Amino acid sequence: MNPRARVEKQVVYPVGREEVWAAITRPEELSRWFGMEVVSLDLRPAGRIVFKDSGGTSRRALVEEVEPPYRFVFRWLPAPVGGPGHDPGSRVDFSLEEVPGGTALTVVETPSLAVGEMIPMAGPVFLAASTRDLPDPIGAPPRIVGRGQAREMALSG
Fold first, then answer.
1. Which of 9, 24, 118, 150 lies 20 to 30 Å from 134, alpha-carbon distance?
2. What is the C-alpha to C-alpha distance for residues 15 and 107, in angstroms, rounded to an integer?
C-alpha cells in the first residue's frame, strides 16, 4: 500500500451524535481511540494535542477545525527526519452525521506535506541554532527538527 495514500472509513454507531462527539474529543476517550495517552488537548483551532505512547515517545498534533458536534480536524505534526519513527504527518478529519439508526462517523486521513502543501500556523516562526539556545516556555508548541538536526524550527502559537 502506498504510504502517501488517502484513507477513508465510515462506521455507524447506534448512539446519538453527542455520544460519538464525546468519544473523539475527550482526552480519556481519544486515548482509547488511538492507543496512546492524551497528555494534553486544547480543543480549539490552533490548539495542540500531545499524545504519549507506552514507550514514552510523544506525538504532537495541531487542531485545525472544531465544529461541535459535527466536525473535528487535526494534523499530526511531522516527526523529526532521521529520528526513530519518522513520520511526515497527516491530516485527520472526523465528520459526524445523524443517520437512521444512529450516528455515522466518517474518518479521513490524508498524508501531509504533499508537494506545495503548507502547514497552517497561528503565529510567527523563528529559527534557533539548537534547542539549548532557546528554552521552551511552559505550554510551548512542538519543535520540528530539520535534516541532520543542524537547525530546529519552533512553531510559536
1. 118
2. 17
